[in-house]
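New to this. Explain the following:
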Amino acid sequence: MADTFDPYREALVMETETVWPEEYEDLSPNEKTALEAKLHADPAACAGLAYIRTHTGFCRQITVTPADVERVSG
């Protein structure tokens, strides 16, 4: 289950991770990097957002959805 955007946890994000479903395996590494940057720049708009506790704070994990790709593409 996805988390909701949390400003408190956002302030403690020390790492980011992006989970790409198999349907996006044909994207080049450069395309994925560009899309990841856009997704992580606006995590509140992402459907598959999770905050994972780490020793130093939190890791923001975004699981990419077709709606996310459509929103940040173009």
In short: Residues 7-72 form one domain. The chain has one domain: 7-72.
